UniProtKB/TrEMBL annotation:
Keywords: Cell membrane, Glycosyltransferase, Lipoprotein, Membrane, Transferase, Transmembrane, Transmembrane helix. Its main location: membrane. The gene is lgt. Residues 330-341 have a biased composition (Basic and acidic residues). It is an enzyme of class 2 (transferase). InterPro entries: Lgt. Catalyzes the transfer of the diacylglyceryl group from phosphatidylglycerol to the sulfhydryl group of the N-terminal cysteine of a prolipoprotein, the first step in the formation of mature lipoproteins. The chain crosses the membrane at residues 27-45, 57-77, 97-121, 128-146, 190-207, 219-238, 250-269. One of its GO terms (molecular function) is phosphatidylglycerol-prolipoprotein diacylglyceryl transferase activity. One of its GO terms (biological process) is lipoprotein biosynthetic process. Its EC number is 2.5.1.145. One of its GO terms (cellular component) is plasma membrane. This is Phosphatidylglycerol--prolipoprotein diacylglyceryl transferase.
Length: 341
């Protein structure tokens, strides 16, 4: 059997795959991929937090507000950095919120998600940096999965290339650069970032086994690793972005991530103890504590039954006192009517 020639390019999925309809509902591949990424990241974060003494699934109380504010931040950041795509004559205003069409900035998601997670951690008595260290590699994995959504949407590709892994983009794509012939291949930046993120996940897990990564050190590694990769990959993308201080807005945002990560690492290395409880009151959750609390609850008498016994005893005592009083009143009355001897 003759060998098949190696593929000369990476095809883009048919646009029909970007969405499908089931009854009255329309499902978008991009949105389903994002949901899958969130579920996987939540599951892994739960495992990492319980391994550090956290209550199972307490992560849900933190993830829900973090995801909601993260989605809002992702969309708003993208809109603000790509205003020409949303604000023009005849534009449909509601598309600003059409997240299923793509265009959700990771940097904005991190900002919004961090705000939501911070306040949720304060409410649940969880140290924010402890949660951040647990969720950091899970976020990186979720970002790798989410980049598949860009592939389905035919978006966020890079410069033209003749490399054998060049990405096929239809010439009818609105983002197809003007003046280039049909059939031009482009750098698959979605794939570059996917691979970079997966390497980062492996690196964080490996370093976590080799060193004590507490007090925000895992988060710092994440910020530095992702920021550096994003700066490089973002620099070769052809889609429009606002220029700030001579840089694409996302390049500037990634640079700020790197600087924050370096600052956080320096601060953390100056701290002595890294093995602290994830809870602000320094307790460690255990199944034995949960069992003891449940057992204590089961042994305590039902409030209704106890109240009923007390009420019945009170009624009996009151009735006895009433009978005694009646007898005492009757005796003097008989004495007074007895004739004198």
């Amino acid at each position: 059997m003759p060998l098949q020639p190696a593929p000369a390019s990476i095809p883009s999925p048919p646009l029909e795959w970007a969405s499908f309809t089931v009854g009255p509902f329309t499902f978008h591949a991009y949105a389903l991929i994002i949901v899958a990424a969130i579920i996987i990241a939540t599951w892994w974060t739960n495992k990492r937090m319980t391994a550090r003494g956290g209550e199972p699934w307490i992560v849900i109380d933190i993830v829900i507000p973090a995801v909601l504010l993260g989605l809002l931040g992702a969309r708003l950041y993208h809109v603000f950095t790509h205003p020409a795509d949303f604000f023009y004559e005849g534009a449909e205003w509601w598309r600003v919120f059409a997240i299923w069409e793509g265009g959700n900035a990771i940097i904005g998601a991190l900002i919004g998600g961090a705000i939501g997670a911070y306040f949720a951690c304060r409410f649940r008595g969880v140290r924010f940096l402890a949660f951040a260290d647990a969720v950091a590699p899970a976020i990186l994995l979720a970002q790798a999965i989410g980049r598949l959504g860009n592939w389905f949407n035919h978006e966020l590709f890079g410069w033209p290339t003749n490399l054998p892994w060049g990405l096929e983009i239809p010439a009818t794509n609105p983002a197809f650069p003007a003046g280039l012939p049909a059939g031009t291949l482009f750098h698959p930046t979605f794939l570059y970032e996917l691979i970079w993120n997966l390497i980062g996940v492996g690196l964080i897990v490996l370093l976590g086994r080799m060193f004590r990564l507490g007090r925000g050190r895992t988060l710092a590694i994440y910020l530095i690793w992702y920021g550096l990769g994003r700066m490089m990959i973002e620099s070769i993308r052809v889609d429009y972005s606002e220029i700030v201080l001579g840089m694409r807005s996302n390049v500037l945002g990634a640079l700020i991530m790197v600087l924050i990560g370096i600052g956080l690492m320096i601060w953390s290395l100056r701290q002595r103890d890294t093995d602290v409880s994830i809870y602000t009151d320094d307790h460690v959750w255990s199944e034995e504590d949960e069992s003891d609390r449940d057992a204590a609850t089961d042994k305590s008498p039902a409030p209704d039954a106890e109240d009923s016994v007390v009420k019945e005893d009170s009624v009996e005592i009151s009735q006895e006192e009433s009978d005694d009083n009646e007898d005492e009143e009757k005796v003097p009355a008989e004495t007074e009517t007895r004739p004198a001897s």
